[in-house]
Each structure stands twice: as structure tokens, then as C-alpha cells.
Fold each of these.
Amino acid sequence: GENVEQHPSTLSVQEGDSAVIKCTYSDSASNYFPWYKQELGKGPQLIIDIRSNVGEKKDQRIAVTLNKTAKHFSLHITETQPEDSAVYFCAASRSTDAGGTSYGKLTFGQGTILTVHP
Amino acid sequence: EAQVTQNPRYLITVTGKKLTVTCSQNMNHEYMSWYRQDPGLGLRQIYYSMNVEVTDKGDVPEGYKVSRKEKRNFPLILESPSPNQTSLYFCASSLSFPLRYNEQFFGPGTRLTVL
């Protein structure tokens, strides 16, 4: 099955700095890579995702890059703000299993606690 | 309001006492899933369902059961809870699958403690 490794486990930055979180995956058939933000006491919320047919996607201060050859993808947050402080999770999924049947598994990384200091 | 609801939000129980955590969505979503969240391990998928009467194991299904008799509900059943099932549980749903084309929405979580 898929295995997703996420680093670092904690990240502390000053307001206005950039933050980068990296993930590696093991299943070369994975083709969907979402990133979730989890605020204290809440469920995860999708903030950005990337599919395997593109190498980079940007949405305002957030960007995600994907290197299929190396099997790693990264989340980049620029001009960080205190409200960006949260736990961030990467995940990986494939559309079908080895037999071609639709596939519903989603494998998460271990999470990164991001703290942005004012 | 479109949402995923879970009940109860907090539960303390004892080893071996059967319990059910309910999950309901009002968005007519086909896909529903259960995850557990443990420190240092992230979220791990327990079971998922692609539609009514269709369920499949995730990565950590041992000790859990699910059913999908109606589209809106996806209860998680612990027939004989053990302390290693103490965790934070999340239910999620999406319009359809594969997930690469359908955003997944999470419920608020259920904090379960098994003594």
C-alpha cells in the first residue's frame, strides 16, 4: 500500500516569512495529492491539491509543487500570518487499484504543526 | 447549511462495551469515510464507502465495523472497544470518487476514550 512521509513535524516561523512542508510517497500510481489544514478543535479542511498531470499549482499565498520522478510534493506558504498557525497534513491517493477498480483510499502524512509568531 | 455531523463529540467508555459513533451528511454525497487521528501518526483511514451497501477496508479496519444502509448515514461500530482504540475520530464525505475530482469534507470529530 501507499506510505506517505511528512517533514518537518514542527515548524516555527516569524510573520512574513515563508514556510515549506515536504512529503514523499511510495506508490508510483498515486495521482492526487491534497493538502489539509486543521485548526484547533476542528476537522481538516482542504486548502489546495494537485493532480499528477501538473507540476505546480498556486492559490494566492499557497502553492504546491509535485516531482513525480522523485515522488515528492511540497506545500509553500509565503508571507505567513498568525492565522496560518495550524496543523497541516499532506495526503496521497490513486484513482483505481491494480485491477482497474475505482479506489477510495486516502493515505495521510504524519502532520506538521506550523506556528507563526507575530 | 451543508455539513457533516458526528455524535457524540466526546465519549468515555470501558473496555468491551459496544458503542456506535454516528455520522451524517446532508449533501447527498456518495462517498463517506472514517479516519482516526493519533499523535505522530496523522490520520489513518479505517473504512470507506463508495455508495449505499458498498463498503471497503482502509488501512486500519481491525476492531471496527461500518454499515451504509442509507446514503446520508455512515455509522462506525466498535463491538468490543479496547484502550488502543482511544483516539480522535473523523468522518468525511465527498460528492463522488475518485477523490482527485471531488473535495472531501470532514466532520468536527469525536474524542473517544476507552478505559
Note: Residues 11 and 114 of chain A are 5 Å apart (CA to CA).
Amino acid sequence: NAGVTQTPKFQVLKTGQSMTLQCAQDMNHEYMSWYRQDPGMGLRLIHYSVGAGITDQGEVPNGYNVSRSTTEDFPLRLLSAAPSQTSVYFCASVGRGQTSQETQYFGPGTRLLVL
Amino acid sequence: AQSVTQPDIHITVSEGASLELRCNYSYGATPYLFWYVQSPGQGLQLLLKYFSGDTLVQGIKGFEAEFKRSQSSFNLRKPSVHWSDAAEYFCAVGSNNAGNMLTFGGGTRLMVKP
């Protein structure tokens, strides 16, 4: 298993540009989430999905869109990038099991710089 | 709204010394609590989690945490720190045991002196 993969690893955008951060998992996990990490603030939840076709907003959804057409993929779209979106973005996935054995897996992150 | 506070931004300990990282949470219902570790330039790895039962939870890499409802705390401990433990540690609270919708604390950066 590759686990959770994210592309690209690093991206520079100009204000107003759009882009999509890709996230894929090969563990057949129902739950997937996007977080952003900023210094001193930990990680904050942007959007999450509990299954294909189902998404919802997290703590900081403004400026971001998501969709979940397949179980494997959960892309994050920035329609018009702003400098405030400069951050490190992490995708995560976890199965929907109700046991204590379930573990959330994080991807390696995408570092985004908006100029 | 749920929240997590990690009062210590930086902690430095000597190798072989004991470690305690503090975490306080605010949550209206039964909390699901997690500790994650992040090495530089890496994603997050789950150390341990609590959602019911014994309030002392054992995790990977020799870490443990104790849930104290009366103090709204979930402190992380390790009896003897190794140089490889140097990393950033995050406490988080969730609304279910899957941990797919987490609220994180600001993190504590641990440095280990030889």
C-alpha cells in the first residue's frame, strides 16, 4: 500500500490563480479530510468527507472547494488563491471501523506559497 | 465549540530524562482524545488515543497518556526520552473515535539535549 499520497509537494502561485491539490489513498478508507497547518496554530480542518459523494465543511472552509467522486480521491481546489492561503496542507484518511484499531493516516503534505 | 490548549510551545529535556507534555481540552460531551507526533518535514503519526475505558492509555514508542476528566487534561508522558523523540507533538480532540474531524492544539516542540 502506498498509503496517503499528495501532489504536488511544493507549489508557488500568484494571487488570483487557481489550482488543485491532489490526495489519494489506496486503503479503501471511507473518511478523508483536509487540514492546513500554520505556525503556532496546529492543524485546522478545512473540509472532510465521510464517503464518495458526501462532503462537509470544517473549521476554515472559505476559499476552498472539495469533491469526492471516488473513494480513493479527495482533491482540494483553490479557485482564486490569496496570500492568506500560504500554508502546508495535509490530507488524511481513516476507515469507518468502530474499533480502537482504526488509525488516521496523514499524507506527507503540500507546501503552498501564494505571492 | 471544542478547543485544545497546549501551554508549552517549546520544551527541552536531557536524553534519558522523563517527559510530560501538557494538554487541556474543552468539549461538551465525551471527548475522543489523540496525541500525534510530527518529525521535521513529515506528516503526522498517531501515538495514542483515548475514547473509553482505562484512563491510562499506552501508545507506540514508549509513550503513555492519562485522561483526567476533572481537570480536562490528557497529558503525554514518557519515562526516558531518546534523542529520536525530538519532534513536534500535537494533542487533538474529536467528536468520534475515527478521528476524522479533529481540533488540534498549537503543538509543543520537543528538543532533546545529549
Note: The interface with chain B takes residues 4, 31-33, 35, 40-45, 48, 50, 58-59, 90, 92, 94-98, 100, 102-104, 106-109 of chain A (CB under 8 Å).
